[in-house]
Amino acid sequence: MFRTQTLARRLISTMIPWYVLLALGMTVLQLGIQYFTISADISDDLVSLGRTVEPGTTQAVWELDSTRLAAIVRGVRLNSIVSGVRIINAKGLELAGDGDRPRPLANPGSDAAPAFAAYKSDKVPLIYADRGDERLSIGQLELYSNRAVLWQRIKYSLFVVIFNSVLGISVLWLIFSWTIRYRLSNSVTSIARVVAGWRASDGRSAAERIDYPYRDELGNLVIALNESHTQLAASMRELKEVNQNLENIVTQRTAELQLAKDAAEAANTAKANSWPI
Q1: Is residue 140 part of a domain?
Q2: pTM, whole model, 2 decimals?
């Protein structure tokens, strides 16, 4: 089946698997870039938010103002990127918290969550400076962003990337198919038609030359074919002229021989008639 297909169909059939693989690879690459970009943006937003609320939180923890701490937690939770918040004292006891957050000591000794962890987090140390400029660590503010937050931010970009990829892939495939079918395949078909006309030509009229405007590999082949056919046509004309000359010579020699024969026969007849009876 593959051997009997047209050139365009064979080229397209050969390119389809590689084209699909390349298209999928580019789509996955774009999705990966979107994921890590948005994930990094969420981490940066958590850091910025933590630095903003850190002074008020530090003061509330120092004063053990539970009402103010609860208000800070509620205010932080209003931010769309924050899925959970926790305020702990220097001993690690939770003073206030709300939302989806890991259990205490879920990631001991780590201040940053891995790229594919369940939570993005920012842990801001609460440092209180007393009147003597002595800096005391009195606790920690922990902000968390779970995968639901990441999905809310990435889903629209995900749909846009997939749509753009499908649209771009489809348009490029149509252009690619059109180029193969109507540029390359048509050129080869035109050349084959002219060559077939050469074979059907009786040699009495000038054969059509192959017209191909490009100087590529196919153009070099066309030039060679045109030159070969020109030389072959010239050789055929010379051969026809030689054959015609031979036919003329044979005809002339045949006529001369016939005249000589007739003359000989006439002489013999005249000689026979002149003998006495």
Answers
A1: yes
A2: 0.57
